[in-house]
Amino acid sequence: MHNYPLDPTPDTLSLFTVYMCHHIKPDSVGTYLSGICHQLEPYFPDVHTSRNSALVHRTLQGCKRIRAVPTSRKRALTIGDLETVVDALSSSTDYDDNLFLAQLLTGFFMKVMKRNSVQTNNVSCKFFLPGHKADRFFEGNTIIVRKNPHKFDPHKQFSTYLRAHDAEFPFSSPLWLTSRGTIPTHSFFIRRLHRFFDSDTAGQSLRAGGATSLAENRVPPSIIQAIGRWASDAFKIYIRKSPVLIQALLFGQTKWSQSTFLHALET
């Protein structure tokens, strides 16, 4: 196309990197280069040496600095946000309102998969979380959420929803079901969330908000990472990119009791 030699030297790969960074995100160019090297290796055995050269590496790093697009992150929900929703919906008798509120609070404090994995008593909810992406050995975790005296008590709302679920759908395995007996979609939750908050909130806001709340209660970062089932690299990036979480880790308050929050027991 540009009359360059076919041999993939560091110079040609560097020029290709610059060219591609004008058309796609620089973060994707490294993947393109790896795929190209895999295809060319039978014909050019030294292609990986050229790919790993200092010139190509520095070219790609420079393009990322110049043309990288900032990651758009949703706002973390706060305890005050939870109180706003609880005040509006806690007295509602509508099934779907109870479903949404239970999802909101349990999503902030924990994550639940199947109805038959849930055990409840007067002081806590307990369930088994199967293997997930941060669980390299897919052993799963036993999660306990304890009752707390505040209005945003996830145990109370979860129990309320569970009674409604079992009354309407006693033989259904999925834990989350709408009043129509269907599994709630992403849009079901987001539509209701945006009745209370702007579009700068989404599903990830719950996880981020839970991590920030734990940090405000002086919970060590290593424990927050384990509780939230964050991969190591993802958690470090989130801390670095989130000024709210950094402030919470540095100047955590003790307004809320640590017993309010989720306890994770490694199995």
List keywords for this structure.
267 residues; hpI Integrase, Chain A; 4-stranded antiparallel sheet; 7% strand; elongated; Integrase-like_cat_sf; DNA recombination; DNA_brk_join_enz; Phage_Integrase-like_Recomb; DNA binding
Task: Please provide a written account of the structure.
One of its GO terms (molecular function) is DNA binding. One of its GO terms (biological process) is DNA recombination. Keywords: DNA recombination. The relative contact order is 0.12. The chain has helices at residues 10-21, 26-40, 47-51, 54-67, 79-89, 95-109, 154-168, 186-193, 204-216, 221-228, 232-241, 243-250; strands at residues 118-120, 124-129, 141-146, 263-266. Helices cover 50% and strands 7% of the residues. Strand 1 and strand 2 form a beta hairpin. With 267 residues, the chain is of the alpha+beta class. The protein is elongated. It has twelve helices and four strands; from the N terminus they run H-H-H-H-H-H-E-E-E-H-H-H-H-H-H-E. Helix 9 runs antiparallel to helix 10. A four-stranded antiparallel beta sheet has the order 1-2-3-4, covered by helices on one side. The chain folds into two domains: 10-67; 79-266, Orthogonal Bundle (hpI Integrase, Chain A), CATH 1.10.443.10. Mean pLDDT is 78; it is low at 254-267.
